[in-house]
């Protein structure tokens, strides 16, 4: 279709997701299972190293949550954490911990999950866990770059977000450059504060 050769500038709403300390408990359904979400989010100072470190933090914490909540506590079938820092349409971070469990274990496992996060904030991750995440990231990237849909998304996002399209050539270098201190630093900077707690319990 013919265009107008114009350069429109998008306008972004001032609306932002909820931040601060909040608790929301919903009691619905009869299945004797609860679902727990712990969410940190807020304004960020975007840079590529912090963004990769935040992603790694989520994957490292996922390892620790499975070890602690499933294998030691025996309270969940699965647990996960994920984190990201984005620059578009505004600098923002989001970090989420989630797991299902029995209603009687909600408080115990919530505290255990936060304790695992606090241990990384206080002491940093282990070298073993960081290396495991780096290896997994590089292996996944080697598979993804074989797919057309990956390149379509990468190229379109690079154009939309005005990022250097050649940064992929240094992806492995950027991954390997992330240190234990980088992961601990991003955890201290963004996750040592208030969070939103969401719990779905069955009806009493």
Automatic annotation (TrEMBL):
GO molecular function: metal ion binding; peptidase activity
Annotated TM spans: none
Key words, A-Z: Hydrolase, Protease
Domain Peptidase M16 C-terminal: 9-135
Keyword Hydrolase: yes
BP term (GO), one: proteolysis
Keyword field contains Nucleotidyltransferase: no
Protein's name in the database: Putative zinc protease
Lineage: Bacteria, Pseudomonadati, Bacteroidota, Flavobacteriia, Flavobacteriales
């Amino acid at each position: 279709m013919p265009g107008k050769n114009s350069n429109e500038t998008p306008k972004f709403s001032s609306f932002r997701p909820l931040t601060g300390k909040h608790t929301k408990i919903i009691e619905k359904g009869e299945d004797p299972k609860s679902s727990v979400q712990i969410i940190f989010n807020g304004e960020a100072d975007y840079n590529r190293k912090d963004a990769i470190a935040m992603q790694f933090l989520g994957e490292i914490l996922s390892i620790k949550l499975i070890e602690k909540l499933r294998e030691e506590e025996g309270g969940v079938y699965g647990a996960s954490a994920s984190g990201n820092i984005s620059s578009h349409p505004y600098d923002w971070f989001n970090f989420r911990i989630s797991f299902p469990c029995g209603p009687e274990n909600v408080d115990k496992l919530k505290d255990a999950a936060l304790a695992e996060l606090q241990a990384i904030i206080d002491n940093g991750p282990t070298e073993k866990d960081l290396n495991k995440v780096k290896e997994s990231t590089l292996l996944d990237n080697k598979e993804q770059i074989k797919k057309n849909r990956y390149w379509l998304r990468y190229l379109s996002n690079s154009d939309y977000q005005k990022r250097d399209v050649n940064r992929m050539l240094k992806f492995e270098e950027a991954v390997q450059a992330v240190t234990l201190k980088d992961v601990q630093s991003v955890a201290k900077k963004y996750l040592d504060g208030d969070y939103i707690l969401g719990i779905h319990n069955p009806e009493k």
